[in-house]
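Practice problem: predict the structure.
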Amino acid sequence: MLTCFLVEDSPVIQQNLVATLEEMLPMRVVGTCEDEGTAVAWISNSAHRCDLMIIDVFLKSGSGLEVLRRARLLRPDSRLVVLTNYATPDMRKRAQQLGADRVFDKSAELDELLAYCETLSGPPH
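Answer:
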């Protein structure tokens, strides 16, 4: 089963995304947070494991781009996805430069995010 850590500052989006991911995919969300500091602390704890991190760019405090940068350094084997309302060409390029495997637009590309996660979880058992 795929494990996921979610960094998202909107409680409503966080709850809906967790429910959708766990309901539609063989996935378990192992942790969530709303700000850079908490995310970096979670990533820095070697006891915490996840296959995938989904990171919003704009957080309650700090930046998802900094979370992304630190995650790429500390978790080189994790898949890193940026999910943002600001998926402009510049933002996509910046996120990819910082190590994002993929960038998805919250308002237009949720189906694509689910399809991507499905490919990571492998064939159904």
